[in-house]
Write a structure and sequence with these properties.
- The longest helix is centred in the N-terminal third of the chain and has 17 residues.
- It contains 10 helices and 9 strands.
- By secondary structure, it is α/β, with parallel strands linked by helices.
- Helix 1 crosses helix 2 and helix 3 packs parallel to helix 5.
Length: about 200
């Protein structure tokens, strides 16, 4: 008797975005914490997606904040783009990550929108307001007697939001494709308006 909506990270769509961002992309660097189970699971999904997309990949892991910048530096020259799952260690160290990636013109597609605000290049992610609405619609069906929880499949969000960081792209001298800027919103502008 469990149902509802899932906030599963759209890993494949995020890697497709990285491929759009870097047309010459051959090898993706996976940057994540070696001690976060959730990150390891998302990296398994990412590896499967890379196999489908014809991309190679390399793992780069850190176990604490002191290692993040050095591990990020070790990616330089080995990959053409960086993917970071929704990883707590990396999220709290995005400034250290992007200090290295920006200087070396390595675009970063992270798993969460907040990580774009903190220096990631762009991502496609869930809109939690829409997800909440979708969950509410499911609850209404149950409350009206139109459906039973045990018979309802778990639903996933099919309308994903695109976010980009114009400042991060400019630091790398990168012009973001129209498919990103016209269909998305600047995470920095969104963050600024939410603080007002």
């Amino acid at each position: 008797n469990v149902s509802g909506t899932s906030d599963k990270t759209p890993v494949k769509e995020q890697l497709e975005m990285l491929k759009t961002l870097v047309p010459e992309l051959e090898t993706v660097g996976f940057l994540y914490s070696s001690s976060e189970t959730n990150s390891k699971l998302q990296i398994e999904w990412a590896k499967a997606a890379c196999d489908e997309l014809g991309l190679k990949y390399k793992d780069f892991t850190a176990s604490n904040s002191n290692e993040v910048q050095q591990v990020t530096q070790s990616m330089v020259g080995k990959v053409q783009g960086v993917y970071i799952p929704t990883d707590n260690l990396m999220a709290s160290n995005m400034k250290n990550v992007t200090a290295v990636t920006s200087a070396n013109k390595l675009p970063v597609v992270p798993g969460a929108i907040g990580m774009v605000t903190d220096g990631g290049t762009c991502t496609v992610g869930l809109n939690y307001e829409k997800l909440g609405y979708q969950t509410g619609q499911m609850a209404i069906k149950v409350l009206k007697g139109e459906a039973k929880v045990g018979d309802m499949p778990i639903e996933y969000q099919d309308q994903l939001d695109v976010y980009y960081n114009s400042e991060a792209a400019a630091k790398m001298g990168m012009v973001l494709p129209d498919s990103i800027t016209k269909n998305g919103q600047d995470a920095l502008a969104s963050a600024a308006s939410s603080q007002k």
